Amino acid sequence: MRIAVTGGSGKLGTWVVEELLRQGYQVVSLDERRSDKIHCKQLKVDLSDLGQVVGGLSGADAVLHLAAIPAPLGYPDSYIFANNVLSTYNVLDAAAMLGIRNVVAGSSESVFGFAWAPKRFDPLYFPIDENHPVLPREIYGLSKEVGERTGEMFARRTGMQVTFLRYSTIVAPAEYERLNVREPERYKHTMWSYIDIRDAVQASLAALRSEAGGYHALNVTSDDTLSDRPTEELLDRFYPAVKDRRRTFAGREAVVGNALAKSVLGWQPAHSWQRV
């Protein structure tokens, strides 16, 4: 198979490209810049230009769309929204034109709205699963919601398989030593959620191999929290107003659930900050 990866020179893209090549896939990276860290065909593509995207995706069997501004930082809101939404639309539209039947796209847990909200608010219930309403209150989360809705429309209209992966905070092995799991207030607004980059890679590949069909938006998170405290203790301390706990959390069990991704993709996270 030939896989087109947008954002192949990015943090996750670099790891994904390396693993795809290791497993024998043909890979082409579509990005605004070239990278000496990946060793595949690289095309410099402006994803805001549909014609360039069609040309770049031509010949691909599946697409992994990872290119995006990854946080509401460093750019004006209007630019973040336009970049993320238009690039996603163009990738889906180009795939539909070319008859590509499988598109996997990077979304974010920020779509729920808690991580970057200028005025903080609580979840409706715990654990946070894919049925929890998405309630973004800033532009980055909104751009992810619009991207997901766009993917759902294309799946419905064309019958292609579209999977949006709501990656949690992606952590590479070398970054663990800089994280302070003994300060739970630091990660309160992300619900102490994270995903090891190696597990994010495997979830991405599992989605590319999946034959689930239709549209899916899936939480991609670790099984545990980015904290040394028991989860029940964290919720009691930081979210006492949320009375709807739909089960008891064992030990340091993750607050953002990944059961649906496990079921749909046959994927299982294998790494933790406790065993790098």
UniProtKB/TrEMBL annotation:
Gene3D superfamilies attached to this UniProt entry: NAD(P)-binding Rossmann-like Domain
Q: Which residues are in coiled coils?
A: none
**Ranges for the NAD-dependent epimerase/dehydratase domain?**
3-219
Q: What is this protein called?
A: NAD(P)-dependent oxidoreductase
What species is this protein from? Cohnella zeiphila
